[in-house]
Design goal:
Two copies of one chain form a homodimer. Chain A is built from 14 helices and 29 strands. Chain A has 529 residues and is an alpha/beta fold. At the A-B interface, loops of A face loops of B.
Chain lengths: 529, 529
C-alpha cells in the first residue's frame, strides 16, 4: 500500500493523518471489522547464565532515586530514541516517572519516546524535557498540563492515545516496542518479584505494568520496600525483571484519590446516578448473579452507592463487580453482596487494604480485562457499565479526551474497552459550565455510538434506538426517558445555542487509537497561534 | 553449519545423533556455556471479534469425554503431523490423554507428535496408537511401559526427553510448536479460566500447562466441574483458551499418590535420609531463613521428615520450601516452620487441600521455577535440594532416566533444573537388586557432575571434591564421609564386580536435552533384537 494522501477517512468519516511518527495508519473500520494478522511480539531469549544465581539484582545507591535509576538506565544501555515506559498505579502520587527522565537527561540522551500507562498533573515537570528534546513525544493517555502542552502544538512528535486494553494490544502486537520499562513497586524482593498491595507506599495493583514486564527488552523495578524472597503476591514476576533499584520512596499513595475518584456532591449529578441505578433495577439487569462496573468519576461512584441500596432492598447479589475498586465496592464485597471484585485499578486506600486482605478481591490486568486481541476478555461479559464522557452526540458517539474547545485534557483509561459490556451507560450532565454536553457531532470520536446503549442526564435517560430490547424493558421505569435529539434541542435553547466548533490549526497533534489498533480520530492543535 | 557426520560428541564426550527427527542437534557444551540467540516464539494475534462476547466457549456432548474432545479437535482443525500436548497433573490418574488419542484416531489423523509433560503407566493404552501410526513419536518425560516400548526400538520417531524447565524452554524458544494443547482441569468456567485446586477431581495445580496455554495455537480445557465465571484462582487464563469441553470425569486424584510419592519404609533408605538431614544441619545449611527442596521419591520425602524434627529441635524456621508438596511439607507450613511452600506439583491430597486453604501455599510453574532461558529462576536460589538418581558415577555425573541395563524407564521431571541449587544432594542406595549404583561412568548422563555436590548412600556421604567449602564445613559432622572411588570399589567387591555395560543396538531411540536445549546424551535401543 502506498500512502498517496496526507490524511485518510475512518469509516465514520473522521479525518486522520495517513502516518503517525513515520508509521502508516490503518483508519478505524467499524467495531469488530479490522482483523489483525501475523504473530505477537516476541522478546529476546535470555539465559539464567547471565543473571545472578542467588537472585540478587539490587542496585542501592544510598536509596537515592535519581542516582539509582540513572545507574540502572546506564546498565540497561539507554540510548537516544529509545522507548521508556512508566505506569500510573500511584495516579497523581507517582514519583518515579519524573526521576526517570531526570536521570535520562543527566545521561544526556535525546529523542526518547515516553510510553506511560497514563500521565497526571504530578508529571507537569516533564514538560521541560519535552521542550529540551530529552523526550520526543508521548504515547499514552494524557491528563491535564501535559495534554494542554500537546494541544498547543509544542510537542515534537505526535501523541498517540490508547485505552488501557489498547496499550496492552499495541505492545503485544509489536506496534510499540518498549526498550526499557521502569516499574514503581511498593514491595519487591531482590529477584524482582513485586506487588503493589503492601508496603509503606502500597497503591493496590501493578497490572498496568504487566505487558511491559512481559515484552520490554529491559525491565527495572524500583521499590522502597525491599523484602526477602519471595515477595508474594508476585503481581510482577522476577523472571521478567533485569534490575531492582532500592530507593527511599516511590510514590504517595494518598494521592491516588483525586477528583475523579470521589463521589459527587452535586445534586444534579447525584440525580443522574440515581436515575441510572433505578434504570438498571427496573429494566431487569439487576438480577441475581448479574455483574456491573462503575468507572472513575463522581457520578459513577454515586451510582454504585445507589445500586448497592437497591440490591439490598431486593435481596439481589452480584456474581462479580469490576473495579476500579473503592470503599463502596469494598463494602459490597465485605457485606456479601458480591463474592468477587475483579479489580483493574485501585481508586482509594480502602481498595488497597481490601486487595491485601480479601481473597475475593482479585487482581486483574489489561490483558485479562481489556485486550481486544486475545481469545476474549472480561469487558464484554459485564452486564452493565456506567462511564463518564466529556461530550456525546445525537448518534450516541462519545468523547472522553477533549473539551468542546478542542483541548486534549483527559486520557482514555479503560473507557473504550468497557464500551463492550452488555449495557453501556454514559453518565453526563446535560450542561457543563453553561456549555451543552450533547452535540450534533462530538469534537473527538473516542467511542462509536453503536456501542453506547444509554446516555443518562439529570433530565432523564436517552436509550439508543438500536437497543429495542432495552426500550421495551424500560417501559415500566419511573426514570424519565427522553429522545436524544429533543433533549439536545432543549438544552441548546437553555444555553442560548449550539456549541461552537472549536478553532483549531492544521497540524495534527494527537491520534486516538481504537481498541484494535486502528485510528478512530485525531486531534489538531488549538494554539495559541 | 553442514552436518557431515551422523553423530556428534558433547563436551563430556557423549555420542549423540547429529539430527533428531530431522532437526539439527546442538550438543551439550557445558553448564552455562551455550548462549541462546534470537527471540521467543510468538503465537498468532487473535481478535475478540472471533470469540463469543458472553465468554461461553463450552462444548458439552452429554458430558461424554471422547465425543466432546473429538468435536473440539475437529473444530481446532486437527491434521496429520500436528503436535498435541497433555499434562501429568493427575500423574497416574490421568484420563484425558487416552481420550485425546482415541478421539484423534477416530478422526483418522496420523503421524501426530505427542508432547506430554510426563507420561505414566495409566497411558500404556496409547502404545497401540504408536503402533498404528496415529502417534509418530513422543517428546516428553517417559515412565514405565511407554519408556520400555521406546527402548525396544519400536517407536517411529526418536523420543526427546526434557526436564520440566526444558519443556517450558523448548516451547518458549520455538523449538517445539504445539498445535493443540489439551488441558485437564478439575474446575473451569465457560470462558476457560481453570484451576486444579478445587472440584471433585482436584489435583492441585496446573502449572505444567502454562507454556502450552501461552504458546499453543489452540487451547482446549477439559473439565468435569464447570462453574460460573469467574473461576478463581485462574491458574490457566481464559484469555488463552479457545474451547472448554464439559465431561463426566477428567482424572482420578487418588492416583497422584504413587510409589515415588510415599515415604520409604526401608531401613537402609531411612538411614540415607537421616544422614542427609544431619549433614544439612551440621554443615550449617539449616540456619534461620534457609530454604530447601525435596523431590519425589521415598528417601527424599523421609529426609524432609527428619529435617523437620531437627528444625524444631534447633528452633530454626525456613524462609520457603519448594515442593512437590505433600503432607510433610504441609505440616511444616501449618506448624509455622515455613511461611511459604512454593509448589510446582502436588504429590498427595493433603497438598491439594493446603493449596486451596493456605495463603502461603503458592502455585508456581516451570516458568517461575525452572526455565533456564529467563532472567533467573527459583531453582538456583534454593539452599539445598535432595534428589534421587538411578545411577551415579565417580565423577559425580548422574542418571535418572535409564537403568543399568540401558532401558529407558523414567522421566527427568524437574531433576535437571534442581541441580542448580546451592547444594545438590543425590540420595541413592549403594546397591539396588544386587547391582552397584555407583559406576565408573553412568549409562546415560542426565546431570553433569559439576552440579552434583554430594552423593548420599546408606554407608555415608561423598562430597564432590570441587566443593572444598562443603568439605571444610563438614569436618564436625557425625555422618560418615567417604571417598567416592573407595566407596565404589567396596560396593563392587560386595556385588562381585562392576556393572556390565548394557548391550544396545546401533539405533538411537531417545535424546536427553539439557536445560538449555542442547543434547546432553542419547539412548540406543535395547532390543529384544
Amino acid at each position: 500500500m502506498t500512502v498517496t494522501t496526507d490524511t485518510l477517512l475512518t469509516v465514520a468519516g473522521r479525518e486522520v493523518p495517513a502516518t503517525i511518527n513515520g508509521r502508516e495508519v490503518i483508519p478505524f473500520q467499524g467495531v469488530g471489522k479490522y482483523k489483525p494478522g501475523g504473530i505477537k511480539a516476541a522478546p529476546a531469549i535470555r539465559s539464567c547464565a547471565d543473571f545472578p544465581a542467588d537472585g540478587n539484582k539490587v542496585i542501592d545507591l544510598d536509596r537515592e532515586m535519581v542516582a539509582g535509576i540513572k545507574e540502572a538506565l546506564y546498565r540497561a544501555g539507554l540510548m537516544d530514541g529509545m522507548t521508556i515506559s512508566t505506569h500510573h498505579h500511584f495516579r497523581n502520587g507517582d514519583l518515579v516517572a519524573n526521576a526517570v527522565f531526570e536521570a535520562a537527561a543527566a545521561l544526556g540522551v535525546k529523542g526518547l519516546r515516553w510510553y506511560p500507562s497514563a500521565c497526571f498533573p504530578c508529571q507537569e515537570g516533564l514538560i521541560k524535557y519535552l521542550e529540551d528534546g530529552t523526550i520526543h513525544h508521548i504515547e499514552g493517555s494524557m491528563n491535564g498540563p501535559i495534554g494542554a502542552f500537546c494541544s498547543s502544538g509544542k510537542m515534537k512528535g505526535m501523541a498517540v492515545l490508547r485505552s488501557h486494553g489498547g496499550r496492552y494490544q499495541a505492545v503485544q502486537d509489536g506496534e510499540v516496542h518498549i526498550d526499557i520499562a521502569v516499574l514503581a513497586a511498593p514491595t519487591a524482593d531482590p529477584f524482582g518479584n513485586a506487588t503493589g498491595d503492601r508496603g509503606p507506599s502500597a497503591c493496590g495493583l501493578l497490572g498496568f505494568g504487566l505487558a511491559d514486564s512481559e515484552y520490554a527488552d529491559h525491565v527495572i523495578v524500583v521499590t522502597d520496600n525491599l523484602v526477602p524472597f519471595p515477595c508474594y503476591p508476585w503481581q510482577i514476576q522476577g523472571q521478567n525483571v533485569d534490575q531492582v533499584v532500592h530507593v527511599d520512596k516511590v510514590g504517595i499513595p494518598e494521592r491516588i484519590v483525586s477528583g475523579t475518584t470521589r463521589v459527587t456532591k452535586s445534586p444534579d449529578r447525584l440525580l443522574i446516578a440515581e436515575h441510572i441505578a433505578k434504570f438498571v433495577r427496573d429494566v431487569g439487569i439487576m438480577k441475581p448473579g448479574f455483574s456491573f462496573q462503575a468507572g472513575a468519576g463522581g457520578i459513577t461512584l454515586a451510582f454504585a452507592m445507589f445500586l448497592k441500596d437497591f440490591m439490598k432492598e431486593a435481596g439481589v447479589k452480584a456474581s462479580f463487580v469490576r473495579g476500579g475498586s473503592n470503599q463502596y465496592l469494598v463494602e459490597m464485597l465485605e457485606e456479601g453482596l458480591t463474592p468477587y471484585i475483579l479489580d483493574g485499578q485501585t481508586f482509594d486506600l480502602e481498595g488497597v487494604r481490601s486487595m491485601r486482605e480479601n481473597a475475593g478481591h482479585i487482581n486483574t490486568s489489561p490483558f485479562t480485562s481489556y485486550n481486544y486481541h486475545g481469545k476474549g476478555n472480561f469487558a464484554s461479559m459485564v452486564d452493565v457499565v456506567v462511564l463518564g464522557a466529556t461530550e456525546v452526540d445525537v448518534n450516541f458517539n462519545a468523547n472522553v479526551v477533549t473539551h468542546s474547545d478542542g483541548r486534549l485534557l483527559h486520557g482514555i483509561g479503560g473507557w473504550q474497552n468497557c464500551l463492550f459490556s452488555k449495557c453501556t451507560i454514559l453518565a453526563v450532565p446535560s450542561v457543563r459550565d453553561r456549555i451543552p454536553v450533547i452535540l450534533d457531532e462530538v469534537t473527538t470520536m473516542v467511542g462509536p455510538g453503536e456501542l453506547v446503549d444509554v446516555i443518562a442526564t439529570e433530565r432523564g435517560l436517552c436509550i439508543n434506538p438500536s437497543r429495542k430490547d432495552l426500550v421495551d424493558a424500560a417501559c415500566g421505569t419511573e426514570v424519565p426517558l427522553l429522545d436524544i435529539r429533543e433533549l439536545k434541542e432543549h438544552v441548546d435553547q437553555l444555553c442560548g445555542g449550539t456549541v461552537a466548533v472549536p478553532k483549531v490549526g492544521d497540524k495534527f497533534v494527537a491520534a486516538i487509537k481504537w481498541v484494535d489498533g486502528t485510528v478512530i480520530d485525531a486531534i489538531k492543535e488549538t494554539g495559541p497561534f
